[in-house]
Design a protein that fits this description.
The chain has 1 helix and 24 strands. The protein is mostly beta strands and about 290 residues long. It folds into 3 domains: about 110 residues, no CATH class; about 70 residues; about 100 residues, Beta Barrel (Thrombin, subunit H), CATH 2.40.10. Strands 1-2-3-4 form a 4-stranded antiparallel sheet, with no helix packed on it. The protein has a 4-stranded antiparallel sheet with strand order 5-6-7-8, with no helix packed on it. A 4-stranded antiparallel sheet has the order 9-10-11-12, with no helix packed on it.
Length: about 290
């Protein structure tokens, strides 16, 4: 389920996107709330992070996707009485109240957890290990395209392409699944004491030939430049664990959380990286 249910799933749920000068991300509000009421935060440079949208449901999550200025939001809630998930799809633009475009329905695929992309207001594609699926409103998911590797996450990137992520590799593909570029061997197999014993690429983004990714097991944020040169942007230390990344123009947003497995909720640590020597802590709660 969560960020707050990282204890149960081993992974935070949600993501981070850049829309013009604004950055949006999923979290919980209040941050230390064990009931896990999901929220979406918004921030732009020169301001403080603020709540953009607050869920009314405990044990909830938000997942985000944007197409130009339009922001699509999957809201998920969990019912302990039925042990079921339900989701709905919202649509918004900056400063406007989100409208419901797909109302609540039972979710057997954990839709959006592995990323999603809207082809139209009536059709989406989403990642659900090990495949990429498409789904029309009111219909059951079917396979979008066949791919030879098991996929953990999908992300829309420039020129109507898709970035696919596995545990250890990333693939830039077109809408048919044809590989345009790939990056193999991204994880360090010699890692010891990986957070929650998970050594994997947790999230990735692509822009102008560069691959930006969060190496969960190594507690690092890294980039592979267009010329193939690999750089470590930021090395974190326990209990900080990296998960979400996003390009915002030429700059990079790097999101980590303090994960302490003592029953407490994760605490955010978000950094804006303008270049290798200029970074700003945007949001950090000890």
């Amino acid at each position: 389920m969560l960020i707050g249910s990282v204890h149960a799933t081993g992974h935070p749920t949600g993501n981070m996107i850049s829309v013009g000068e604004y950055v949006y991300w999923s979290y919980i509000n209040p941050v230390d709330d064990p009931s896990h009421y999901a929220c979406i935060m918004i921030w732009k440079k020169g301001s403080d992070p603020a709540v953009f949208l607050q869920s009314k449901h405990p044990a909830s999550d938000y997942m985000l996707y944007n197409k130009n200025d339009h922001i699509y939001i999957i809201e998920r809630k969990y019912s302990s009485s039925t042990d079921d998930y339900e989701v709905r799809l919202l649509k918004s633009t900056h400063g406007k109240k989100p409208e419901i475009i797909w109302d609540w329905f039972k979710d057997e695929y954990r839709i959006g957890e592995g990323g999603f992309i809207m082809l139209s207001d009536d059709q989406m594609i989403f990642g659900r290990y090990p495949n990429v699926y498409k789904m029309k409103r009111g219909s059951s998911p079917t396979t979008y395209f066949k791919f030879n590797q098991a996929i953990v996450r999908v992300r829309a990137v420039e020129q109507n392409n898709i970035l696919l992520s596995s545990d250890s590799a990333c693939y830039l593909v077109d809408q048919n699944g044809t590989i345009l570029k790939q990056w193999d061997g991204l994880i360090d197999d010699e890692i010891e004491n990986a957070p929650l014993n998970r050594n994997q690429i947790f999230d990735a983004d692509y822009s102008e030939g560069e691959l930006l990714f969060a190496h969960w097991g190594k507690r690092s944020f890294e980039v592979i430049e267009a010329n193939g040169n690999r750089k470590k942007l930021l090395q974190l230390h326990q209990p900080l664990t990296p998960h979400w990344v996003a390009f915002t123009g030429k700059k990079k947003m790097l999101f980590a959380s303090r994960l302490i497995m003592d029953g407490s909720t994760p605490k955010p640590h978000l950094i804006l990286l303008e270049d290798q020597y200029n970074q700003e802590v945007v949001w950090s709660i000890p």
